[in-house]
Structure formats: structure tokens, C-alpha cells
Amino acid sequence: MEHRLGNPQSTIAVIQKYNFVFQKKFGQNFLIDSHVLNKIILAAGITKEDMVVEIGPGIGTMTQYLAEAARHVAAVEIDANLIPILKETLQEYENITLIHDDILKVDICRLAEQYNEGRPIKVVANLPYYITTPIIMGLFENQVPVDNITVMVQKEVADRMQVGPGSKDYGALSLAVQYYAKPYLVANVPPNCFLPRPKVGSAVIRLTRYATPPVQVKDPALMFRLIRASFNQRRKTLQNGLNNSPELSFTKKQIALAIETLGVPPTVRGETLTLEQFARLADLFSAGEPVSSSDLT
Ligand code: SAM
């Protein structure tokens, strides 16, 4: 077997040797292009100081590249059928910890403690598209010490991460990514770089975590409840979106007053608000400003 994966021949050889059957439910599209792999490693800025968590190593293609660039790699793979394959393709590397588990159940903070003394790690992945958002949100919201996240995602998702108000792609993911990190589009990647070929285009995006978010907000969790409420019903006005949300319990009057204090028209839609405006809105609610007004019950 070829030692270095990342080309069609060696990938096919591994697949055939193990009679591996691709599982659609796990979003399995393996990278077969060494240029893309090198670009990912370069964009992530991995050095021999770094500990990297790889989500979904597949047959271990990117894992080989990561192990050569990093000090330590923890690779988390859900598919039991890939574990024996990974044990073989990664056998020559002594700096890899292979974990058979669902990434959404793994305590990544503990991995950082265990292998990086709690210092910020790097996350690299050719993500299974079906769980891109929960993975990225989980890394940010669970306060995982992370330096940057360099991931292959569906092109459309990469677009969503970078846009602001006025675009149809603008949504809760855009705001969450932009509150926590600076997004940078590394490369667009066509379907022929994968086996099997996905139906959609892909893109590599790097999210560099801010030391301090670009906006100040007293209660970020409340801000994200407001954001989710606004985009869950994006055709509705902000007033109705906040009023209908099961996650919020403000009265109609409180909401109306907050919107007025924000200085936007009562008919405004949430999708037109900037991150700064959502932060200000959250502060109005959390500081009790609209609530404290005497005419509110
Ligand atoms: N990194 C490999 C590559 O680039 O060739 C494989 C990428 S493939 C798009 C996604 C990988 O994530 C698959 O190996 C899949 O089995 C794995 N995966 C899917 N869901 C997962 C989960 N919840 N936890 C961990 N791994 C998962």
C-alpha cells in the first residue's frame, strides 16, 4: 500500500483492499488532491508546536499531512469500518491519537488539556456536511481553546459564514462565525477533488478566533437567542420573530420599546440588523432598559 495518500490511485487501493463501502449518512467524500491538502495545511499555519484535532479522518489522508506538520494530532472518526483502515494507514506515525467516537460527544476541551496543556489547539477537517453548523457552533459556544478552525465546507455554507445584512445567505451562522472569528476563504474546491464526487461545490475556510469579539455584549447567550428568533422566521418582522420565539419571554411592549430604543422602524426585519445592532438589542434586554420602563407590565 502507498504510504502517502492524497491521490486517486492510493485511495482506490485502500478502498478495494478493505472492501470499504461509502456511507452517505456520514458524509463520506474523501480528498484525493494533494494540492488541496497542502493548501489546507498551509492555511491552518500548522507548526511542530501545534496540537491539531482532526474531525473525521476518513482513511487518514489529511491525517498523514497533519501528522507531518504538527506536534500531535487527535483524529476523531465515527465510522467503525474506518478504524482498522486508519490503524494501517497511520501506523508509521507516533504522534497521532485515534479516537473512535462521534465528534459531537467528544469533550474537545479535555483533549486540549490532555495533549496541549490547555493551550489553544487548531482544528482541521474536511467536514461531514450534515453536521457542519453544530460542530462549528459547538467549538465556539463551548469555549474550546481554539486558535483557528480550517475546514472544508459546502461552498454555500462558506458564503453564509462571510456575508452581512442584505444577502440572502445572511443568517444565524454568519453572525455566530463573525462574532467569534475572522473568516477567510482559502480556496474553492471542485467536486473532482473528492472520491466519490459530491453533488455540490466545496470551499476551504479558515476561522481565526478573536481574542476579543468585535462587538461588546453583556450576555452573548441572550444575543444568540435573539438572533435565532429573528432568523427562524426570517420573512416576519423582528417584532413578531421575537414575540413568537419559545426561547424568549419578553412581552410585546418590551419588544416594541427595545426596537424603538434601537432606533429602527417597528416593521424592521431581523435579517437587516448588523451584529452590532443585535449586540445593542441584547444589551437593552439584559440591562433591563426596556423592562424597567414604568408603563410596561
Ligand atoms: N478527512 C477525510 C478526507 O478528507 O478524505 C474524510 C472526510 S469525509 C468528508 C468526512 C469524515 O467524517 C468521514 O470519514 C466520516 O465518517 C466522518 N464523520 C462523519 N460524521 C462524524 C461524526 N459525527 N464524528 C466524527 N466523524 C464523523
Mean of residue pLDDT values? 93
Strand order of the largest sheet: 4-3-2-5-6-9-7
Largest sheet: 7 strands, mixed
- By DSSP (H or I, 4+ residues per run), the number of helices equals 12
Descriptive overview:
The protein has 297 residues and is α/β, with parallel strands linked by helices. It is 39% helix and 18% strand. The protein is built from 12 helices and 9 strands. It has helices at 8-17, 34-44, 61-69, 83-89, 108-116, 132-141, 155-162, 172-180, 220-232, 238-244, 252-262, 275-286, and strands at residues 30-31, 51-55, 72-77, 96-100, 121-126, 146-154, 181-189, 194-195, 202-209. A 7-stranded mixed sheet has the order 4-3-2-5-6-9-7, with helices on both faces. A two-stranded antiparallel ribbon has the order 1-8. Helix 4 links the parallel strand 3 and strand 4 (96-100). The longest helix is centred in the last third of the chain and has 13 residues, at 220-232. Mean pLDDT is 93; it is low at 291-297. The structure holds S-adenosylmethionine. S-adenosylmethionine binds at residues 26-31, 55-58, 61-62, 76-79, 82, 102-104, 126, 128, 131.
